[in-house]
Amino acid sequence: MKQVKVRKKRTSQRRTHSNNKARIKRARQRACDRWSALFFAVATIAPVLYFLGNFTKASAIRDPLIVEEHSVIVYSQYLLFLGVLFLVGLITVRWIRRSLRAPIDQYFPVLAFIILTAYYILAFQHQLSPNGDNAEYIINAKSLVEHGQALRLNTPHNTPNSLASLGLPLLLAPIYHLWGVDIFKMKCLILALALCLFPAYYSLLRHHLNRPKALLIAMVSLTSPYLVASSSVIMTEIPYMLAAILGLIASIKFCEGEGLNWKWGVATLLAALVVFQMRIIGIGLLLAIFLHLTIRCFRRVQRDGWKDLWHQEEAKKLLLMAAPSFSALLLLQLWQGHVGTSQASVLFQSDLISSSISNFRGSLAMLGPMLFSPDAFRWASFAMGAQPPSLQVWWLIPCIPLFYGWIKSLKANHLVAVFTLTTLVAIWVGSRTAQEMVLLRYMLVLIPFLLYFLIDGTHQLIIRLWPKSLRKSLGRWPQIMLGLLCLHLVLANADGNSYTIARAHVGFGPRYDDMMLAADWANDHLPRDAYVASAKPRIFYLFAERKGMRILSGKLKDPETPDETILNHWFSHGVTHIMVDKLSTSVREIVMPLIDRHQNNFQKIPIANSNGSATIYKLHD
């Protein structure tokens, strides 16, 4: 009896001692978390103050029109930037302190969505961008409504546009049918799709990441200056990204779910079709699904052998995806070849090896600047005096964690990683232009996925490189470093976005305004059968409703081209009028001097515009 009491007493003492050790450990952990959170808060002060000091000197903030007429925009930017920084810091601190289960934390995604909405609305650009691709999508929408097919309405014979991607024109067609060429409403549609990116992307990230990391990556990605600038541009970037994210969610549900779910299978096929119709590089989603399922089949064979392979779920899913997809692609190429030019013929008629190598080099050179450098964004946006960052090879060093996270995801056969790879391959193989600015514009649709690999790879790399003997004492350093990386990216994004927000309120400048006024004048005064050569023929057609051609193209842009060659080119194509504006460099440097040297061939038509930089000439033989 006495021995039993002694044993019970010893057991009680051991329990008390164990509980005391657990309490001491928890107390030390809480103290460590508090000090870690304090260190993170202090570490953010210097970069934020440095950014604010430089930001006050930025040309986009000190523009006279901004200072005199839109000063409220400057203060709004400060509030937005500080709001984003505060939310990123708050999420990181709460993550460090392991306290993301409080009721207030449930509202972080809502707060992030509100801040992003304010960001996109502040950067809303109501004018049509001076990019002919914007006008082409609207022309295709007009053609679908009026002719039931995609035609090049700005050409003399309305030739079929067999290579047109019809995803965006189909979205614009109802607006054109109801209100005509209403640029504002079309841009509002793009803005609405941009606002849908956050819930869709956050849902996608939650498949692989916990809540705080997914929220941080979503905040950093969707404040990227490329995405903010694209949120009010009538281009395919935003619709493509939203369709791709929704397609990836459907694909994950179908490919990785148990059983053969026909509903998710049909949803995946429809999503792949929509993504492909948004942009031709959308073929990357379909290739990613095939590759992902093939890898799953291969791993099943390694485990179970070849026996009953075609009775396995992976093989059935692969067959379900492949059969209708290849049939649809084959029929599309046959139809395109019948009415015009097919995508396959364009692809195989080019030097695939040489162009792919050039595209690979160009995209690799822009990978770092695209994610980290505001200068690269301003250069890609044609800001006055902006140049791409020098020593571009050094920008690959910060991308080491990006490649680490990407390769790690590829080894795990994550569909997002496979999709990024296949889309990049589609860009390298399909792009006909190896210029870095063009490749950057193609690659910007991958920014959310590349930032996902960068931030997640940084987190995993810190844990992996930490000495094994010190891993138990690692504490919250991965979260601290991750928060500081997100802070740096948000500050870089804010610097780039200042240009977009300023341009949204200043406009594209007096030369652009004169060009648009000249197009409106032509709509009211030029003969209906006028055939006009201009620097922006698709934009001119959209507002002037006169057919036309590019004023200079190919070898004609060479300053050494003889005047007679250019004049004969215009005469042979039946050009009746020349639209001269100072927005285009080639027009300023080649066409205007040519007109001065051959004044007998040109009759100037007076046009009332505020700056006089756009003029229309009647061409005489």
Sequence-ordered SSE layout with sheet pairings:
Blueprint lengths: L1 H42 L1 H11 L3 H4 L1 H6 L1 H26 L11 H15 L9 H16 L19 H13 L3 H13 L1 H9 L5 H12 L2 H6 L6 H20 L5 H17 L4 H22 L8 H27 L3 H6 L3 H21 L1 H7 L19 H12 L3 H16 L5 H8 L3 H19 L11 H30 L3 H16 L6 E3 L2 H8 L3 E3 L12 H10 L4 E5 L3 H13 L4 E4 L8 E6 L2
Parallel strand pairs: 1-2, 1-3
Antiparallel strand pairs: 3-5, 4-5
Helix pairs in contact: 1-5, 1-24, 5-6, 5-11, 5-24, 7-8, 7-26, 10-11, 10-13, 11-23, 11-24, 13-14, 13-15, 14-15, 15-16, 15-21, 18-19, 18-21, 18-22, 19-24, 20-21, 20-23, 23-24, 25-26
* Helicity, as a percent range: 55-70%
Q: How many strands, which pairing sense, and closed or not: the largest β-sheet?
A: 5 strands, mixed
The shape is globular
Put simply, the count of helices is 28
Give a structural overview.
The protein contains 28 helices and five strands. With 621 residues, it is mainly alpha-helical. Strands 2-1-3-5-4 form a five-stranded mixed beta sheet, sandwiched between helices.
Main attributes?
621 residues, mainly alpha, five-stranded mixed β-sheet, globular
Q: In a nutshell, what does this entry contain?
A:
With 621 residues, the protein is mostly helical.
